[in-house]
Amino acid sequence: MSISEDIIVKASGVTKVYQLGAEAVHALRGIDLEVRRGEYLSILGPSGSGKSTFFNMVGGLDRPTEGNVEVDGYCLQELNQKQLAWVRCHKMGYIFQSFNLIQTMTALENVSLPRIFAGETPAQAREAAAEILTVVGLGHRLTHLPSQVSGGQQQRIAIARALVNRPSIILADEPTGNLDLKTGEEIIHLLGEMKEKFGITVITATHDMKMLSASDTVVWIKDGRADRIARKGEFEVSIGTIDGKTLA
Amino acid sequence: MTTTTQTPAATSPSIIPEQRHVTWAVTLQVSWAGIKRRFFRSLITMSGVVLAIAFLTYMQVMNDIVKSLVLANDTVLNALLQKAGVDIYAADSSDRMMILLITLSLLACLVGIINSMLMSVTERIKEIGTMKCLGALDGFIIRSYFIESSLQGVAGTVLGCILGLIVALAAAASNYHGYVMKHFPWLSVAGSLVISLLIGTLLSVVAAILPAYLAAKKQPVDAMRVEE
Ligand SMILES: Nc1ncnc2c1ncn2[C@@H]1O[C@H](COP(=O)(O)OP(=O)(O)OP(=O)(O)O)[C@@H](O)[C@H]1O
Ligand SMILES: [Mg+2]
Predict the structure, then answer these.
(1) Which of B41, B134, B143 to mutate to test the interface with A (most CBs of A within 10 A)?
(2) Largest Cα span, chain A
(3) Which of A32, A203, B65, B224 has fewest C-beta within 10 Å?
(4) Is the CB of A248 under 6 A from ligand 1?
């Protein structure tokens, strides 16, 4: 094992080049990063710095141009389509800025999907889904459609869906981007709570300063590179600025 | 079930599981929510099928009835037939024209289903990407699209058959009155309905293949990229 037990994500020399006609966009220029098991890691950086691109690499949603990503002992580059789908289903939970709930499915149906993909019958899956929806505080909204609940509640459904298979990692790309201040705080709080309850590693990308207080580690990405990494206690959080720098 | 296709890396667990397929039955159960809640939109998708199959059914049934009335060789009836523009001495003369018309309408219907399913794939890129993030295999996406568009097609076909039959009966009754029932060609009308059902079903199933395949090729990154 080249990856130690308590390192859950290891990115080595990850680059991503998008070829747009004759022009090459260097979205990532070589990122090395280790994420410890069970920590809450926030990725900060200005728009266009490559946060989402890096996320897609860690989440096995896209392949790096060069470099490697290992997640929970699996070297993502070496997996075939079906293995990648298995890892996505069992090891990762995704949370998106725009919730990405299936609009035609109820909360219960949305949350049971990962279980069904994992091989359970819909009836078994619904049972587990109801349980986790209750944990995130939506036990009374099981049969509502996404359009019938608030944005914050939609994101709670998405969090339940991300948790239902008990993944090792939750990947959240700007989970508070579409929410107001107070609801955003509640969602961040919930993520932190779930991290403790299930011992899950949480990785979020954000512009949101509120995220920092919940984080164990903060990584600044600038122009496709990890500019700075700070552990808890090494960064000072105050409203609007961090270490005196205003965040873009 | 849990075999690997390549030599496992030193860092990866020696046996890496592969995601298993969701059965057709479960896929149907999962897709059913969407099919049910998109019902009214599906009606619009289906309208092309309904009209084309109604036309096909109408032409066939009308032809069956007229043939049977011509065979009856009744003087009053022959006068009615001639009044309706039927050449009673060569009832089959319009067959070629009819086949051409029917073929064209069926082609238009085929293109119609493919087109509306392709549009629904574009609309639902985000949904497909999300499903893949949650662990769906290409096969699941293919199956659920296939189920949805085939069901739409089959439902449209049945409606089209009923509509075509009703219109043909009404038209025949208004031209030939009680003679229609007296000389009703039960067997050939039943045969025509079966042909319409088969053609419509086959058409919608064939039309479902391409959109389903294209849907499955959408990547999970698309779930992030597309904004509502
Ligand atoms: N599919 C793509 N094709 C071409 N260029 C892309 C693509 N996706 C991202 N990029 C480029 O890569 C760079 C990094 O984009 P990315 O989405 O990772 O930024 P980000 O940090 O997530 O920004 P934001 O905070 O606005 O979400 C940008 O310059 C972007 O234009
Ligand atoms: Mg982004």
Answers:
(1) B134
(2) 54
(3) A32
(4) no
Which residues contact residue A78 at a Cβ distance below 8 angstroms, ignoring those fewer than 6 apart? B6, B8, B9, B12
Give yes or no for a contact between A88 and A59, defined as CB atoms under 8 angstroms apart. Answer: yes
- Which among A2, A78, A81 has a CA at the least distance from the CA of A34? A2
* Domain A37-60+80-246 CATH superfamily: P-loop containing nucleotide triphosphate hydrolases (3.40.50.300)
pLDDT per residue of chain A (248 residues) written in tens, 0 to 9: 445 568 999 999 999 999 988 899 999 999 999 999 999 999 998 888 999 999 999 999 989 999 999 999 899 999 999 999 999 999 999 999 999 999 999 999 999 999 999 999 999 999 999 999 999 999 999 999 999 999 999 999 999 999 999 999 999 999 998 899 899 989 999 999 999 999 999 999 887 776 777 889 999 999 999 888 888 777 765 544 555 555 54
Between the CA of A5 and the centroid of ligand 1 the distance, in Å, is 32
- Please choose from A15, A28, A49 the residue to mutate so as to test ligand 1's pocket, defined by most ligand atoms within 8 A of CB: A49
Closest CA to ligand 1's atom 14: A50
Ligand 1 pocket check for A48: Cβ under 6 Å:
yes
Tell me whether residues A102 and B131 touch, CB distance under 8 A. Answer: yes
Does B4 map to a domain?
no
Q: Please check whether residue B180 lies inside any domain of the structure.
A: yes
Q: Cβ–Cβ contacts within 10 Å for residue A214, how many?
A: 18
Cα of A179 vs centre of ligand 1, distance in Å, is 21
As for the ipTM of the complex, it is: 0.88
